[in-house]
Amino acid sequence: MGPSAPVGTSMPYMQPTVGTTMPDHTAGVAATYGMIPQQPTTNFGNFNTTPAPIQNQNYNYAAPPTSQPSTFATGPNVQPQFAGNMQMGGQPAPMGVPGTQGQFPGGVPQFAMFQQPIVQDMAMQYGQRLADQGKQLVENQFEKWVSVAKLKYYFAVDNKYVINKLRLLFFPFTHRDWSLKYDQENPVQPRYDINAPDLYIPAMAYITYVVVAGLMLGLQNRFSPEQLGIQASSALAYSIFELVVYSITLYVVNIKTSLKTLDLLSFAGYKFVIIVACLLVSTLFHGVGYYVALLYTSLTLGFFLLRTLKTKVLHDATPAATSGAINYDPYGNPQQLDYTGGRKRKLYFLFLIVGGQAFLSFLLSKHLYFPDAATLEVRNNQF
């Protein structure tokens, strides 16, 4: 037998290709805190059984080429995309919790969907559809009582018409032509005919009356919101009662006329113009100026109503036809009417309208005009 090989010499075929030794960072920490026990060393003869440190094996590996670059970035400064929603311990944070990243505006995740443009567009379209349906419903209900097409006729005015109409109400004695104008069979709009009735001036005069009533009450230290509402409701109630009386009178005495309900409302509303004028005059000339102005304006309004209603009640001012007298009202409803009989009843009806306007003008303004100092003191003591 030959000589034996030395025991302490390592065999060359048992040694791997050794590169640089990788340090074990966790071994020292674990050993320090006693988490990993030290591995014992056992000697069997001349052989040391202590495990050798892990070494970096030199394996040459080349990654296969790719056609597209990797979308995952690596590096020490790269944070994961969900890092904003992580709590301590690696647990994901709940959405919308105050103090965390990625929360919804206002901290209410339930309403985040309403901030989407598609949802907002759908809500807007739905709201527009509801508004259109409501508008159509109101128009249908309003059409049952008053036709919008008929009502537009009375508001077809302009500035020139309003100025000339107010001048006609206060100075009607110089006016000569009181007939209504027609375009073939249709009456022209008020803006083209100063003698045509309108509802714009009565509506604006009613609103002005309420405002002036509040002013007069304030000058007399009697103003209150309740009083303003009382004046507005009282004036409206008197106008409705007046309209009902005129309509019943026409029906009871069987007067055939081309007057319509809106025509009567228009002529009955002109009294608010003279009431406002009388109240404003009383601020300068007190009680004497008020009564003088009321007397004059009552005469002018009466003259205006007599001459205007005369063409509608006493005479047939509409175009003639072979089949008889045809009344073509502003609403576009031709009617066969007889204008020959009941002249005396028609005159009584005209005087009823004129007298009613003067009486209601006094009734709606007698407690509002600005009196002199003595009368004002007595009135304040009464209220």
TrEMBL record:
Cellular location(s): Endoplasmic reticulum membrane; Golgi apparatus membrane
Residue ranges crossing the lipid bilayer per the database entry: 199-218, 230-252, 264-282, 288-306, 347-364
UniProt keyword terms in alphabetical order: Endoplasmic reticulum, Golgi apparatus, Membrane, Protein transport, Transmembrane, Transmembrane helix, Transport
Topology within the bilayer: Multi-pass membrane protein
One GO term of the biological process aspect: endoplasmic reticulum to Golgi vesicle-mediated transport
Domain of life: Eukaryota
Cellular compartments per GO CC: COPII-coated ER to Golgi transport vesicle; endoplasmic reticulum membrane; endoplasmic reticulum-Golgi intermediate compartment; Golgi membrane
Main localization, broad class: endoplasmic reticulum
Function: Has a role in transport between endoplasmic reticulum and Golgi.
Family: Belongs to the YIF1 family.
Name of the protein in its database record: Protein YIF1
